[in-house]
Amino acid sequence: MKILSLIDGISGGGGMVMYNIIKNTAGHNHRVVCPAEIRNWSIGLPKLITEEGIEVRTVAGRGTNVAMRLINEEVMKFNPDIIVNHWWRSSRIQRLNKFGKTRKIYGGAKTVLVSHNNDPSPPGYDYYVSVSKHNARFQVHAKDRKGAENHRVIYNGIDVEKYKLRKHPLEGRFTIGRVSSLVKFKAPKDWIYFANSFNIPDVLHMIVGEGERRRQFEYDVQQLGVQHKFVLPGELSQSGKAVAKMLAKFDIVCYVTEKTEAFSLAILEAMAAGLPVVAQNAGGMAEQIIHGKTGFLCNSRSEVKQYCELLSRSPQLVSEMGRAARERARQHFGLKKMAQEYEALFSELTNG
Fold first, then answer.
1. Is the separation of the CB atoms in 121 and 87 below 8 Å?
2. 3 state SS of 295
3. What letter does residue 255 receive in the DSSP assignment?
4. What integer is the mean pLDDT of 319-324?
5. pLDDT for the residue numbered 61
6. Out of 15, 276, 293, 294, which residue is the most buried by the measure of CB atoms under 10 Å away?
7. Least confident interval from 82-86, 167-171, 213-217
């Protein structure tokens, strides 16, 4: 089976999801088309993709009409059985390529939209995949011409065993961490000021990642004079090993975002590492975290502070929740389970 994946950029959580799907359905002939420039193939996710021998075609630096024509040419040359579009509302792929209007050029290829955000998905696809039940509410076009549902939820998965490392917490410090992108919609602008209000003796906040907010956070740390309480080490490799080693230094993870997320890989990685997660009660997070058992779901900023302070005083609770979080990740969000569900979908589409 020939499967073509379309994605706006090979980085971040969506890129990792695409990579994991391809790697774990390796019995097929895969190719990737991306409109974004890949400046360095020797680091991060581009390096992993290269090592797997996955062919990637880029059409970066082009005007809209030219880019659309080149994408269409790549599709026709490859002649895939299935086209999988990893979709965000801001995706250049979506702006360039309106499947509902141009699908006649793709012959018999079945088109699948994998929705990674909480916005109404576009029409014209043969099938729709949501990464959470919350995300599924936005699949307003998920019916075929006969009115039947052509949609399912497939949770993202990770290699849970990769995150099973012996913990190395910093002695004498209660470490609250997060590992994620620090772009605007991921990290609240006032986070340093808010986190600085936590009443936790010898607390250390490790905020790991890169993006616009990192520079803002560094400035705020300096302004408050709290360099002893906050560390911002920058971006890590996406291999999983570097992330696992960093997570092993944390006692808990506190993950709050400005925009509601459909499904959080940052939370899933923390769970796999055996860490309780304190997060807002929104989006797909309520499907990942069991409140009071694997972490806490918060309806306000005051609750975020309350639960972080509670965990700092309760090492036994941290340990119990961490074990429960890891077991939940193993049972419900493993790579094997995700790959089997995509394999089943691909088979249904080509044999139906």
1. yes
2. strand
3. E
4. 97
5. 58
6. 276
7. 167-171
Using CA atoms, how far apart are residues 185 and 190, in angstroms rounded to an integer?
12
DSSP secondary structure code for residue 85 in this structure: E
Tens of pLDDT, residues 209-223: 999 999 999 999 999
User: Tokens 């309760």, residue?
Assistant: 314
Look over the chain and give the mean of its residue pLDDT values, rounded to a whole number: 87
∠ Cα 287 291 294 (to 5°): 85
Half-sphere exposure of 48 (CA within 13 A, CB side): 17
Q: Residue 8 is encoded by which pair of tokens?
A: 């706006």
**Right CATH for 160-332 from 1.25.40.10, 3.40.50.2000, 3.20.20.70, 3.40.640.10:** 3.40.50.2000
Phi, psi of 241 (to 5 degrees): -65, -45
Report field, pTM of the whole predicted structure over 0.85: yes
Whole-number Å distance between alpha carbons of 170 and 172: 6
Instruction: Determine the length of the chain.
Output: 352
**The domain 2-157+334-351: what is its CATH number?**
3.40.50.2000
- Cα–Cα distances (Å) from 127 to 63, 94, 114, 149, 274, in that order, read 29, 16, 9, 9, 35
